Amino acid sequence: MEVVIRQIFAIPTLMHWRREVIENVFDLVPSKRLMVANRQYYRRHIADGSHIALVTEVDGVGVGCGALCLSDELPSPDNPSGRCAYLMNIYVRREHRCRGIGRLIVSRLVEKAKELGCGKIYLETTDGARPLYKDIGFEELPGIMKYADIQHRKS
After folding, report:
1. Cβ(56)–Cβ(76) under 8 Å?
2. pLDDT per residue over 100-146, tens digit each?
């Protein structure tokens, strides 16, 4: 079994994986408006280097993906560089799960974030993936809150 992880830049490939993630993780068919917004995001952030996307292939077939969204925050004692990495779109096709592929994707993204000087690396997770992330070194952050009403606003 040959496993290859490579960075992807092609918008059609990015869009294919994003649609699959939305359909399988969020269990919904993405609207045309959402997909247009994703395409615009990719065009802007792949070009400026603030989004790094990976695809994992086993024997030449795509089986999973993951991404790193880079941003800057005000430097602080717990993040003197102010550089942040948000891991997202971590996904492995069902038939390839529990084979270490998710671990490889996350480990590669964490390694890349460290290389880029990120002092803070975070992600959101499902209950099923929480043990994997804890095993890799992520910790729960009970002090974090999210403003709920923002999701319901129309733009």
Report:
1. no
2. 999 999 999 999 999 999 999 999 998 888 999 999 999 998 888 88
Query: Taking the alpha carbons of 142, 102, 94, 14 in that order, is the dihedral positive or negative?
Result: positive
- pTM here? 0.90
Please provide the distance, in angstroms rounded to a whole number, between the alpha carbons at the two ends of the chain: 47
Return d(Cα 131, Cα 67) in angstroms, integer: 19
For residue 89, the 8-state DSSP code is E
What the chain holds in terms of domains, given with CATH numbers, is: 3-152 (3.40.630.30)
Query: Going along the chain, which residue ranges are E strands?
Result: 3-8, 51-58, 61-72, 83-92, 120-123
* Cα of 145 vs its chain's centroid, Å: 20
Smallest CA-to-CA distance from 137 within 99, 111, 100 is with 111
Q: Is the pLDDT of residue 67 over 70?
A: yes
- Please, where are the H alpha helices in 68-125? 101-115
Write out the two tokens for 18.
């994003």
